Amino acid sequence: MTDPSRRPTVLVVDDETGILQTLEILLRAEGFDVHTAHGGKAALERIPQLTPDIIISDVRMPGVGGVEVLNAAREHDAEVPVILMTAQATLQTAMQAVNAGAFYYIQKPFRNDELLAILRRAAEHRALRLENKSLKREMKRRERKNAPAPVGAHPAWIEALSLAEAVAHTESTVLITGESGTGKEVVARYIHELSMRAEATFASINCGALPEGLLESELFGHVKGSFTGAVKDKEGLFTAAAGGTFFLDEIGETTPATQVKLLRVLQHREVIPVGATEAVPIDTRIIAATNRDLEEEIRRGAFRRDLFYRLNVIAIHLPPLRERREDIPLLAEAFLRRGAALRGGETKQLSQEAGDALREYNWPGNVRELENALERALILTHGPTIQLSALPERITERRSEPLIADRIAANPTLELIERAYIQWVLQSEGGNKTRAAEVLGIDPSTLHRKLSRYGGEA
């Protein structure tokens, strides 16, 4: 066996108690971890719970036969070797077993050393297949790790991505916060792609887009007849994302009743479909996101404190685009390249005026708004260069509001004095923010933040 320190798990299936006891004693003495199932029906229940390395099953059993056990086992785990045994061997049943995917077919009565030799080969086969699968998974993981990260060079964005990369290989629940359009789902997908769950499903739902009843049905599933229109059982997204990642966007929009059910999922790792009475276990990594201040929502009584603590194991905050203006040209270039790839043409360039307008706009809709603006510009532009006129009017309008009022307060605050000084420097430098930042001795991004906070032109 490839790993002698690991005891292979064997499930023995037969309708004769004597056979089960004899094989259990024999195989335990040879170092196998042995479990038994009395009949095929019992085996169907044990297989999902146990996930055995090897199955030995009689062919002829009342109710559920060995070939049915084989099919159920391979459906649950395509790599599991199944050895079928029978006292009435015929060429037809042997061919049926092989065609169904049996690892070996042995006739009763058999010698102990014969069965043990087959079992050892099955254990080696199992170990090699699992090792090969693990190596392939690791290679894919490394390939994904070398894939380009979401675009951005601002320190706050790099810090958020570094945290995402650090937590990706764990099973910890992640809460991503940030304004709408900052890229919360992009980062959630990035975590999934870097994780060991990357080969499985990435499911997502916007919790604020559906009414409570429909949302719970989508999340947890429902059973036939549980409500009007429930004509058949429906699997929920928590179970559909088995082995993968489930992204709950805008979790702050959920009702208190839904929050109670989500808390149960996080505490017990199980869901109860709408209309059902029994819980269903889940194996899903949960990432949640919100554009709300959940701690403020807790103070208002709109969000459960215990659910917040369950979600907030790893917190990642994404800064708004107006606070990472140096990333605007990088994002614009990436969107323009993607637009060219989708349309099969050359990548268009931004004119100087268009680029300046993008950098100076305040982007209340963040990265999503930038992407939509550039998609519009690509549609309206027929030449190689995107001009200012191709951008939405809200971006090209130059609104310059004074940072301070005409009348100065008798006892001005420090903030008011700072506003006035910044405005004076800007006027002295002809409105050039880069030169104004140099005179002020601050980074241009810091100047942009102050202008945005003061309500002036950013």
Structural domain count: 4
Biggest β-sheet strands, sense, barrel: 5 strands, parallel
Evaluate the radius of gyration: 31 Å
**CATH C-level label of the largest domain:** Alpha Beta
Q: What is the CATH architecture descriptor of the largest domain?
A: 3-Layer(aba) Sandwich
Shape: elongated
Total number of beta strands:
16
Distance between the termini: 67 Å
Which consecutive residue ranges, at least 5 long each, have pLDDT under 50? none
GO molecular function, one term: sequence-specific DNA binding
GO biological process, one term: phosphorelay signal transduction system
Organism: Pseudogemmatithrix spongiicola
Domain Response regulatory: 9-123
Task: Give structural notes.
The protein has 458 residues and is α/β, with parallel strands linked by helices. The protein has four domains: 126 residues, Response regulator (Rossmann fold), CATH 3.40.50.2300; 165 residues, Rossmann fold; 75 residues, Helicase, Ruva Protein, domain 3 (Orthogonal Bundle); 41 residues, Arc Repressor Mutant, subunit A (Orthogonal Bundle). The strands form five sheets. A five-stranded parallel β-sheet has the order 2-1-3-4-5, sandwiched between helices. A five-stranded parallel β-sheet has the order 7-10-13-6-14. A two-stranded antiparallel ribbon has the order 8-9. Helix 2 runs parallel beside helix 3, helix 17 crosses helix 18 and helix 18 crosses helix 19.
